[in-house]
Amino acid sequence: MMFDEMNASGPVVRDHYRTYERWLQQQPGEVMQARREEAEMIFRRVGITFAVYGDKDSGEGTERLIPFDLIPRVIPAHEWRELEAGLRQRVTALNRFIHDVYHGQEIVKAGIVPPEQILANAQYRPEMIGVDVPGGIYSHIAGIDIVRAANPDGSGTYYVLEDNLRVPSGVSYMLENRKMMMRLFPELFAQHRIAPVAHYPDLLLETLRSVAPGGINDPTVVVLTPGMYNSAYFEHAFLAQQMGVELVEGQDLFVKDNFVFMRTTRGPKRVDVIYRRLDDDFLDPLAFRPDSTLGCPGLLAAYRAGNVTLSNAIGTGVADDKSIYAYVPKMVEFYLGEKPILNNVPTWQCRETEDFKYVLDHLPELVVKEVHGAGGYGMLVGPAASKDEIAKFREHLIANPTNYIAQPTLSLSTCPTFVEKGIAPRHIDLRPFVLSGRNEVQMVCGGLTRVALKEGSLVVNSSQGGGTKDTWVLED
């Protein structure tokens, strides 16, 4: 059974899509095709691209547009209110968890999370033990991946598929998609009360400034990028420009007396908050990878001294590891004393003997993922895999079971999508961006809707042929 976001059953259109569906029925196919070509031309002219590195071993990258779909994903106000409450709750609990694992480890002492799941985790950073960060906030910018699956009665249920707490990307596409829709179809925005998203950069800057080291009234914020060859460089430059702050590389920064400074034409300028878009390993060659030329020597010492804030904090990856994901509902109850609003997808941990046996017996039915994997790589989608692919994956699984989790193959909801043959259903997910400042958790209404453009595909990642849609949250 499939849940379609626009169509309830047969010719019945869901209430929140009715105005849009009437408009869509009146649009000639050639007009929609012309609008799609116009969008592609504008995106290419503006330079909204990302790098695709083919297979992981080739090292060769090509610049590519993320395909943009003209048909929006529409969410009614009451659904968004519940999603927003669940996102606030979840991200708050995750931040509490990260603080706990670098301090008292109360959740380990309570027997809820096994110690090896933290201490043996590749993303756990012993350098952060006992370090107090402003407001106890570690993940200031979180991208939480949400999917909807059909229930037997035809309704749909939202599930959290993944928590991205390190350097989540994609928000620039959310913003540019909205600008494009307003440019191409201004009449639609006169017919619908659509919650705005354009103020996201203002909220982001407000969040970053709020977590500056204590005693600083007018903090200097910068965006730290690995450089122009990074796949998300467009987004780094875009967000810096939208916030009105400097975009810097590691070579633009230096540390003196445990303070971070930026080189400028007017001399050194102290930096108080760094929105970093590179992984922990590359931040400081004196503390992590000595061969890194992307970071700033001495940055960890300045951070540990409390003289600069890193967003997101070093060591946040311990909480978005897929092996930790299964414990998040228990975190909500442990830290907040509340029942989780958003559901997890049922998960088998292959490090557990009984779970591992079940997974091996049901590989053709399951989705199996590497605990550190990303971008849709290192995974098996059982129902879409050949016998040979399943057999090869089984070998990897048996060789290192602790490196994998498994989940049922959810039938992700579909949304009508403008493809070469016309309008057809395609599977989608949603990545809202949650901002956690010193005093509040906030977000814009919506997020990045990703769409699997290949018929039948459940993989929405842009690196594997996925596209994006504008996400409309309708106001009451």
TrEMBL record:
Stretches that traverse the bilayer: none
InterPro entries linked: ATP-dep_Glu-Cys_Ligase-2, CP_ATPgrasp_2, UCP005522
Gene3D superfamilies for the chain: 3.30.1490.270, 3.40.50.11290
Domain Circularly permuted ATP-grasp type: 72-452
Source species, domain of life: Bacteria
Protein's recorded name: Circularly permuted ATP-grasp type 2 domain-containing protein
Organism, scientific name: Sphaerotilus natans subsp. natans DSM 6575
